[in-house]
Design a protein that fits this description.
Layout: H1 2-18, H2 24-47, E1 48-56, E2 59-66, H3 76-88, H4 92-97, H5 107-118, H6 132-149, E3 174-180, E4 183-194, H7 203-213, H8 217-233, H9 238-251, H10 255-258, E5 259-268, E6 294-299, H11 305-318
Parallel strand pairs: 2-6, 4-5, 5-6
Antiparallel strand pairs: 1-2, 3-4
Helix pairs in contact: 1-2, 3-6, 3-11, 6-11, 8-9
């Protein structure tokens, strides 16, 4: 801890020297933020066991095991999923609504009510693969996995675009961005979850179909609808607003100039992830993403996806 504080002091001095307009405390806060990002990256390195990384021309394929321990109340993978559920669903707004000294009633009950209004309600009468919570948890887990092994970021709160939280999210499964030669490009993510013991799982075939259709007629329409909804959502963010403007305009004239990658992700619950999971996507079968693809198969270290999903949403509700 002492070394960490000394490091922060040293870096704060450098930041002040580089920008004389910053006060010491402003520079320290900026330094702590940067150090926090580095610490987060170090901790996430411990979350995944990378079993295999395969370079295939312009494509990269990753076989991972998430090192999950539900005996640990602060398990890093679950915490990362909870944080992303908060951001993807726009739950930060709820905390803003509860700020202030003039509130004289039970804020915990109010928060629980507001969270229930935003998050999808789990329906135990539905098959697990049809539940909105499970599907959205798969999308969240895919973001956590890709954040570990690629340079893709996920700044968009797409789950918050739904008018009815109990309905499936419209459009594609995930929208990220990547910096390429000082230009931000769109990344599309398609996700399937499976407890199938076969290699590859049966859902791999439909996942490949989803990737191939992502920039087809219906796929372009879904993508356009979501990007326009995002544009309305980010009216106060000039940078994202301009970025989305460029994407929407370029999508219908030259999609490959907008979409840098299409990434298939398989979330394998108790079943160990293997290279065979992604063989149908490799080589000549990767005909859906002209600029290359980052594909992942990741197992949940012997835990069922449904169990992890329920735990993550419980933690979001009780935060």
């Amino acid at each position: 801890m002492l070394l960490f504080l000394l490091y922060c002091y040293y870096m704060s001095s450098l930041i002040i020297n580089a920008n004389s307009q910053l006060t010491y405390f402003e520079s320290l806060r900026k330094c702590l933020y940067i150090a926090g990002l580095g610490l987060r990256g170090f901790l996430m390195e411990k979350v995944f066991k990378e079993k295999e990384e395969i370079e295939d021309g312009i494509n990269n394929w990753y076989i991972l095991d998430a090192q999950i321990d539900l005996g640990d109340e602060n398990d890093a993978f679950i915490k990362a999923c909870v944080d992303r559920i908060n951001s993807a669903s726009g739950l930060e707004v709820i905390d803003e609504l509860l700020e202030g000294d003039d509130i004289n009633f039970d804020m915990e009950n109010l928060r629980e009510t507001l969270v229930k209004a935003v998050l999808p309600e789990d329906n135990p009468n539905q098959k697990p693969q049809l539940r909105v919570t499970r599907n959205e948890f798969g999308e969240i887990a895919a973001q956590v996995v890709l954040d570990h092994c690629t340079d893709i970021s996920f700044p968009f709160a797409t789950h918050s675009l739904k008018e009815n939280p109990d309905q499936p999210k419209l459009g594609l499964d995930g929208y990220g961005l990547v910096d390429l030669n000082n230009e931000k490009k769109l990344v599309i993510v398609e996700v399937k979850t499976s407890e199938d013991k076969n290699y590859p799982p049966a859902v791999a075939k439909s996942l490949l179909s989803d990737c191939r259709n992502a920039l087809g007629g219906k796929g372009i329409r879904k993508l356009t609808t979501t990007l326009v909804a995002m544009y309305r959502q980010y009216q106060s963010n000039d940078e994202l607003k301009q970025l989305l403007t460029n994407w929407i305009r370029g999508l219908h004239s030259e999609p490959e100039s907008v979409v840098e990658r299409i990434c298939p992700v398989l979330i394998r619950g108790k079943v160990t992830a293997r290279k065979e999971d992604l063989e149908g996507f490799m080589g000549s079968n990767q005909d859906y993403s002209p600029n290359g693809s980052d594909g992942v198969s990741c197992s949940m270290n012997g835990y069922e996806i449904e169990q992890l999903c329920q735990l993550a949403y419980e933690k979001v509700s009780k935060k």
